[in-house]
Design goal:
single chain; 260 residues; 11 helices
């Protein structure tokens, strides 16, 4: 009798343990968040296509041809705008000032009523840049002609100034060689040049002016090129933003395709 009673107790205990375990498992399943169904891939829309994918619709010849059209236009426009009278002097973005380290001296000159000398020097510096910049056209157009397919693809899919950086890399040294003699010749007409070189050269010895600014023709050449590349970058950005402004139907078509 005792054994039968004990067996019943054990059987009931096992059933109870089984039921509790099952309940616990069910509760656990309820607590678990439902596993979401895997998201179905959506077809990419045209606006999400990369510039590289968009370019695949054009042959290598068309890609290079379109870019050469646009870059030749941008280079010629930038040079023409800077080469005219007041192209540098009248444009605050590229106007060449006295070196920063000499601007305090300029302030003192103005305090003593000698501001006209500073003005004459600044004007002559910018006139020299305006005289030199036409030399850039041949070099820039030459860089366009020598552009490879890889160069073209990199520029078309690059940032807003990718072409400008290409030009700087491939023409800057040659441009300096072309610019400097013209700048030097122009500055020889201004007697203030010798005084500037004497003053800046002495100041450089005492670390009052950067050594690279101690010679006026070097300084003007460097700033003239910086202004040219800045204006070219603006031309490039404008064409990318408004492809219909590009010269040539092919350039319009390709730049429109990669504009998002």
């Amino acid at each position: 009798m005792k054994l039968s009673y004990l067996a019943l107790v054990l059987l009931a205990s096992s059933a109870q343990a089984f039921d509790l375990g099952g309940l616990k498992e069910q509760l656990g399943n309820i607590a678990k968040p439902a596993t979401p169904a895997p998201a179905q891939p959506t077809a990419p829309t045209e606006s999400k296509l990369s510039a590289g994918a968009a370019l695949s619709a054009f042959s290598n010849k068309d890609q290079v041809g379109s870019l050469k059209q646009a870059l030749t236009q941008g280079a010629e426009t930038a040079v023409a705008n800077l080469a005219k009278e007041n192209g540098y002097l009248g444009n605050d973005k590229v106007r060449i000032p006295l070196p920063e380290s000499l601007q305090k001296a300029e302030g003192l000159m103005r305090q003593f009523g000698m501001g006209k000398y500073a003005d004459e020097l600044v004007t002559s510096m910018n006139r020299a840049a305006e005289a030199a910049v036409p030399e850039a056209k041949t070099l820039l157009v030459g860089a366009v002609k020598n552009m490879s397919v890889a160069d073209a693809k990199g520029i078309l899919t690059g940032g807003n100034d990718a072409a400008t950086q290409y030009f700087r890399k491939n023409t800057e040294t040659a441009l300096a060689g072309k610019f400097k003699p013209i700048v030097n010749k122009s500055m020889q007409k201004v007697k203030l040049t010798e005084k500037y070189d004497q003053f800046a050269g002495k100041a450089a010895q005492y670390n009052l002016v950067d050594q690279q600014d101690a010679k006026l023709d070097d300084y003007i050449t460097r700033r003239a090129m910086d202004g040219l590349f800045l204006m070219m970058a603006e031309q490039e950005k404008a064409i990318r933003a408004n492809p219909l402004e590009a010269t040539g139907s092919l350039a319009k078509k390709v730049f429109s395709a990669i504009k998002f």
